[in-house]
Automatic annotation (TrEMBL), chains A, B:
Cofactor(s), by name: Mg(2+); thiamine diphosphate
PANTHER family, sorted: 1-D-DEOXYXYLULOSE 5-PHOSPHATE SYNTHASE-RELATED, 1-DEOXY-D-XYLULOSE-5-PHOSPHATE SYNTHASE
Name under which the protein is recorded: 1-deoxy-D-xylulose-5-phosphate synthase
NCBIfam families, A to Z: PRK05444.2-2 (NF003933), PRK12315.1 (NF008968)
Xref: PROSITE patterns: TRANSKETOLASE_1
Amino acid sequence: MTAGMLNSIHSPADVHALSSSQLVDLCAEIRTTLLEYGRKHGGHIGSNLGVVELTVALHHVFDSPHDRFIFDVSHQSYVHKMLTGRAAAYTDPERFGSVTGFTNPCESEHDSFVLGHTGTSISLACGLAKARDMQVSASGRSGIGNVIAVIGDGALSSAIAFEGLNNAAEQGGNLIIIVNDNEMSIAEDFGGMYGSLSALRQSGGTAASNPFRAFGLDYRYVEQGNNVHTLVETLREVRDIDHPIVVHVHTVKGLGFDEAPGDAENGSDGCNQTNAEPHAGQCEANHWRNPDSVSDGMPDARKYYGAMAMASLESRFANEPGLVVISPATPGSNGITRDFRERAGSHYVDTGIAEEHAAAFAAGIAKAGGRPVLATSATFFQRTFDQLQQELSLNRVPATLLIFGAGISGTDNTHSGAFDIAMFANVPNLTCLAPTSGEQMLDMLAWATGPSEHGAVAIRMPGEQILELERAADVAFDPIERAEGHEPVVPAVDRAGDCPFKRYQILRPGRDVAVLGLGNTVALASHVVDRLSGGDTDDDSIGMPVPPVTATLIAAPQYSSLDEEMLSMLADGHRIVVTLEDGQLEGGWGEKITAFYANSRDAKANAVHVLNFGAIKEFTDRVPRERLNERYGLTADQVISRIRMAY
Amino acid sequence: MTAGMLNSIHSPADVHALSSSQLVDLCAEIRTTLLEYGRKHGGHIGSNLGVVELTVALHHVFDSPHDRFIFDVSHQSYVHKMLTGRAAAYTDPERFGSVTGFTNPCESEHDSFVLGHTGTSISLACGLAKARDMQVSASGRSGIGNVIAVIGDGALSSAIAFEGLNNAAEQGGNLIIIVNDNEMSIAEDFGGMYGSLSALRQSGGTAASNPFRAFGLDYRYVEQGNNVHTLVETLREVRDIDHPIVVHVHTVKGLGFDEAPGDAENGSDGCNQTNAEPHAGQCEANHWRNPDSVSDGMPDARKYYGAMAMASLESRFANEPGLVVISPATPGSNGITRDFRERAGSHYVDTGIAEEHAAAFAAGIAKAGGRPVLATSATFFQRTFDQLQQELSLNRVPATLLIFGAGISGTDNTHSGAFDIAMFANVPNLTCLAPTSGEQMLDMLAWATGPSEHGAVAIRMPGEQILELERAADVAFDPIERAEGHEPVVPAVDRAGDCPFKRYQILRPGRDVAVLGLGNTVALASHVVDRLSGGDTDDDSIGMPVPPVTATLIAAPQYSSLDEEMLSMLADGHRIVVTLEDGQLEGGWGEKITAFYANSRDAKANAVHVLNFGAIKEFTDRVPRERLNERYGLTADQVISRIRMAY
């Protein structure tokens, strides 16, 4: 356990009481603590290192929770947590992981919201301030004092942040927007606004072209954003201000990181290296740090299949001018490496954190005859829902969407991948594909980005389950070599315009019971069918040996329409149809199959008993995937037991 | 039919050939045509009157479709349509309605996209320009020349427009963004940016605080935005420009409207009046014009129930400082009248067209103890999907969402209300209510905005079906009186925290068949049950007299969870359960009931035969509701016939 001042900080009151020199000491100790925590536990260390002084100054000057801080995305709230009674979670290795990586009101009264998506802090702050002002008007008092949003320059590129800026001035009243400008997003900053920010930095905040003043906001610039005294002084001046103001603070992301010995070698994926110079193409370096213990060099499924997909596309760049990969600011985690981006040149566009623009931009490229490929997380696609409906699907443009991080997982509650099937599958005109192998993913990508006539296509990138299978089968060698060695095959279609991946595939024929696995769940489906045909002798729910069942194993490679022909055929000879999906049941895929059989005009189909397995409708927070699968009945034991009961 | 020059304009080539004086004559004729069309047919007349000269100048200077125009929202594309071979749709009353109110590539090669939602034009234009530039790099040529986005100042407040502006400069290359500044949104403009626009207008474009330059964009100002010669000159200067530029054009929305005799009296809902002065609180005046023939003074369901809801809330404003109605720019069509807004004072906030901000803003107010009520169209809530998941539902804040325009309807394909159930119902923690009467809506609103502990609540405002029923029953008198005369009743709950509207209601007990109607479909459910109990003697599908069935009639007032107790009870004594919903089946409500019975561990429940009725997954364009209901089997005849077949 790190000893020192942090142990004596139990609440913001303890920060208020510190002398000037103690503030400096505290910052130093926090920085050391963050570095050590990063090495041992990992996390968003770079952004937190950049706001050590800012956060200490905020808690020294303001009075939380009466004054409210809203940290945008809240990945940079570690220091805030240390100062609000949660220091042990960063100093005591046994308590690492006992707090989330984001703010959460369940943890502390000093956290107003659970946040993990970008750009909403200003709007949320406007809401808190509005309610405060109405309370004060009505009764002369409110439980809320100053309202302070802290937002990074990278987050400023996101749509809702602009809407917030535009509405803040209109609203009036006390509202302090701290723009933490560290000259970086997750990858490099992208957007014309960054020229203005740069001019403001260079002119000490006096440049004429000021995007904040253009939104009608008051403005102050602080060059020494890592000097706690300067910050304290500035914040004292704006405290209790009677109108909205932007305080533009220039900080250094990852400050102190390069001083720690051994860091330069840390990590092999380019995400843990550091560099004293910002903007040297090293931004992701500071974004997320893996703990030292993670050094097996094995990419996760996102990076692995992302790299395969990029390698497959790259081979076509020279001959296909319209083939463009678009990433809204998170390339690295999806296998879109810096090397790839440099080689891709104009075939790669980072839009900054701007998913909505990215989706409509893709629609524009596709309409002009190009073949855009938009890659981001399942959870971030939520931002594009309207563009998904309107610009992409209603307009039937051949854009390809690569959905990363989809499926049930142990993520925190703001980044769940369990909701995407219900979001994508119910949009008309949109083809949703769920590959069950790396090669099938490449085949789908080739079709989606190829010359045939079709609308937008979403590809749910294979998850860890598939990668585990492929590693076990020794086919998951280097993703680039693997992509280069595979000549994509697009299955033939009956009619032009049909999706070549519409048909489900019978992997093993049987009778009585059919087990249908969608995408990632094919592995589980296969286990279930194996175990059923072996005969289960240890099934406690039955209590006696049970005879083997030669079940039919089926892979469903898509979830936007039903293979009605196959489903009707199954009704002949199968009493039970089981659907497995790696996402929320409600609104998802299995329910459609259940409804198909119920609404069929064929009595045999009506008689089919469908059992659906998938996630229940809930937010989950850092619950390991295995435990969620247990909870949802998505284990071979539980599926078999249900089948036996219904049999 | 209006005679004149328009008859000789068959394509943009005919506009190129016009002399200066002919351009002026053409503008005058178009303006007269629009006014006459507005009186007879209705439409977005104000915005089109404002861009007559701009559109004529665009087609005179540029060469469509080689040069591409993207009209934001595209409600202002009537003039463009007149100049691209579709004039007869505006001059010949027999062909009124033969084109959509928005651009559509199916109509003309001069329309690039189907558009109806705000703010996407810049992103789409970036995409077209990007593909063009890559084609030119590769082969020296492209089918696309200049790319021109035309966006109104009202649309500029929307999130994605900012993202587009921020990305345009970064991209570089030819891109012309025409900001049509008529000093109005749908209602008044809201946002700090509008101060900057005003300063630019007043300074002839020279003001230092320039939001476009702040985004790194080149900029030009045109004060005489309704002078076709000035516009032609300016556009010639920017044609073939090698970098993105904003051309800020000052126009008068509705120019010429006030000159037409009799207009001042037109319409009784405040939406058809006009005023020569913009910004005199008359903005909606110019937004949408009903044809003269619509003068029965009967409000539609949106306006009617919206007015009821507002009246009910207004009575509480004096005592509840945190009760705030939020409207993202479309108050009038949802019964939030100008009078109400003025009386509401700080209890009403118009965020401009900024749905995402509005949703996060509501989350902030709710977190601070307030009770925000966010009102907008089902289709516009699509923009808030991520905030719906994260800021509102994950954070479990007591915000109320009023969903207007939900349900199957004859709208164009960009404003469908058939998709909202699948969007809202599958979000965890969100309570979704579907009132079946005006009074129930008020009760739900009272609970949602009341003191009890709950998360976000969406209320699907009653549709035309309910209003027709209530008018027939003579209870739909003046909405304000009706609201004032109703003391809201919140049903008791078993446990604190339960939703008092969770339970389905048995309206008429029966057996064998249960017909469940969700919200708006209760009227149809009631018809079906009536007809079944009468015995159908004319059922062609059976071909013989059929015996009466005393079916059970059930109203479902919510669609975010199942009343499992009721559903289980129904399994005893009912062989068939019918679900009716006024929206898309896939991902919707009925499928959940089907899945409930299939996955039950009770054999009786498994044996229930569920029949689901609702919309199929498709985009529809101006197909009357009656025809859609026929297509979806949502008529009493068809539902009865299916029940008889399954019986």
